[in-house]
Design a protein that fits this description.
The protein is mainly α. The protein contains 25 helices and no strands. The protein is about 65% helix and about 0% strand. The longest helix is centred in the C-terminal third of the chain and has 31 residues.
């Protein structure tokens, strides 16, 4: 193996004569003068220009903070260096620019929200390790398949399965897990070039189901996607005295929004891709017997699968009951409010390293080698977002931004919510990371809301959620890439579904945030 050969090889093969390399100065110069290196220089260059030329009516730290933001976001947007590497930059930029001490900025990279992410992803890795998601997918699809075959109901079943998985796993992980289920359905059909038009349309619909049901399902729960965690983390950072957003309160708003949007998506999909006669064209290739055969091939549910599901269920119950309402405080009151959602998430993760899997003697449900797949890029991005939000507050830049946005206070709220949602959903199409888009826009929405004299969550939540509406382009988000890479869909398919779906998403947010959102978050009680 190549890995073993590299280990056995000497680091410096002295037995071979050292040859002089030819002088390639011209090639080296051309290799340096490329767009990537221009973007690398552009970040610090913009920072220096801002620090030297921009004068704000505020402490000098506010100008420095603006320079740091310009540096970090230039690198994020252009991908000059890998996104997680850029995310570590505040750790040295804040102390060097005199914005905050090294200890202060480091605290932003490990708090309850970050531990929530860590624990949740370890559980997701356990689900993936024991193929729990595949068994779930086959069971649900079998229920919705219908006899005789009903293509619309089969798409609804795949929608519901992907939606449910995405509620608990990160979007990219869900897309990677569910796409084999979708392509497995298509493998039973003839090759794409031999398919009649009705069958080809259905094939496209199957892939699009996973592509779009994934981000929609992620809206439902706090851990469904990094954007949700960014919103609650920013809220905690920008308004530390305000009532925090719990897993429960997010679910009571996010789940109805997601379900309504999923139904809109399913209707759009069926109107465009399911035609009369589709059932007849597909019935020879897709039926309940084939699905049952795949399910039987998995064998009976193992002890390990059952234990992973038990830990998963325990985690959900503890999340939902920690803090139920003001009148019914939940079990968290027993610990005087010291236990957070992150504490529960880590507890569930630790249990996976204690419970045996009953496959090999001494082997547990999880081992640390599996955890090498943890998404450290997302964790570092979250930490950087929280650090920047803290820096904007402590440097005085927040006050400058508030004054600059005072003109928005006269804009009617009913007009600005759909406008903000639409703007955020369009911006996210051109920044591949939804998390980076949310990190950029959510703090800005907080200050806009303050100047409008409305509760900040009335703009932060719809604007943040709208950054997940990256429905138009395959490069808009990694989960889109997963679907596009199958070769079964084209950009025109994404636009056919994505354009009306984005309109539906903005409409749902504009309808539910001032109504249901005000009830769940008590936004009629004041600005915070």
């Amino acid at each position: 193996m190549a890995g073993e050969d590299s280990l056995n090889a000497t680091l410096l093969p002295l037995q071979e004569p050292i040859q002089e390399t030819p002088n390639n100065n011209s090639i080296t110069i051309f290799s340096i003068l490329n767009l990537q290196n221009f973007y690398i220089i552009l970040g610090p260059l913009l920072s220096i220009i801002i620090c030297l030329l921009v004068k704000l009516d505020a402490p000098t730290t506010s100008t420095k903070m603006l320079g740091v933001i310009a540096w970090v976001f230039t690198w994020w947007i252009t991908n000059a260096v890998p996104l997680p590497v850029t995310s570590m930059c505040p750790l040295f930029l804040f102390p060097l620019f005199g914005i905050a001490s090294a200890d202060t900025v480091a605290h932003s990279y490990m708090d309850d929200v970050i531990t929530l992410v860590l624990g949740s992803f370890i559980l997701a890795l356990a689900v993936e390790r024991y193929n729990v998601h595949r068994r779930l997918a086959l069971n649900v699809t079998l229920v919705f398949c219908g006899d005789p075959l009903n293509p619309s109901m089969l798409l609804l079943g795949l929608c519901a399965t992907t939606f449910f998985v995405s509620m608990w796993l990160h979007n990219v992980a869900t897309a990677v897990m569910m796409m084999p289920v979708a392509t497995g359905i298509l493998h039973r059909l003839p090759p794409a070039e031999e398919q009649p038009e009705l069958m080809n349309k259905f094939s496209r619909a199957v892939i699009l189901t996973v592509v779009y049901a994934t981000p929609i399902g992620g809206i439902s729960t706090l851990t469904g996607t990094g954007v949700n965690l960014i919103i609650i983390g920013m809220w905690k950072s920008l308004a530390p005295e305000a009532k925090p957003i719990s897993f429960n309160s997010w679910f009571f708003f996010g789940f109805p929004v997601a379900v309504l949007l999923l139904l809109c998506f399913w209707c759009i999909l069926c109107l465009i891709y399911v035609r009369k006669g589709s059932s007849r064209a597909l019935s020879d290739y897709l039926d309940r017997a084939l699905l049952k055969r795949d399910l039987e091939a998995l064998g009976p549910m193992s002890f390990a699968e059952k234990m992973v599901l038990c830990v998963f269920g325990l985690l959900i119950v503890l999340w939902m009951t920690r803090r139920i309402s003001d009148d019914l405080p939940g079990w968290g009151v027993l610990f005087h409010g010291l236990v957070g959602d992150g504490s529960i998430s880590v507890l569930a993760a630790v249990l996976l390293f204690i419970i045996p899997n009953m496959k090999q003697n001494g082997e547990k449900l999880m081992d640390w080698n599996e955890c090498k797949k943890l998404p450290w890029n997302l964790i570092l991005l979250l930490g950087a977002g929280f650090a920047l939000a803290d820096g904007v507050q402590s440097s005085g830049l927040a006050d400058v931004m508030s004054k600059a946005l005072e003109f928005l206070k006269d804009v009617p709220y009913l007009a600005i919510v759909p406008a903000v949602s639409l703007l955020c959903s369009i911006i996210t199409e051109f920044i591949t990371s939804n998390d980076a888009t949310a990190t950029l826009l959510v703090p800005l929405l907080y200050h806009i809301a303050i100047n409008m004299h409305v509760h900040p969550l009335l703009l932060m939540i719809p604007g943040g959620i709208a950054t997940e509406f990256a429905f138009w382009l395959p490069t808009s988000t990694p989960s889109n890439v997963v679907g596009f890479a199958t070769g079964h869909i084209e950009i025109k398919d994404m636009l056919k579904v994505g354009v009306p779906l984005k309109v539906a998403g903005v409409s749902v947010l504009a309808l539910l945030m001032p109504t249901l959102g005000s009830i769940v978050y008590g936004t009629n009680d004041g600005t915070q």
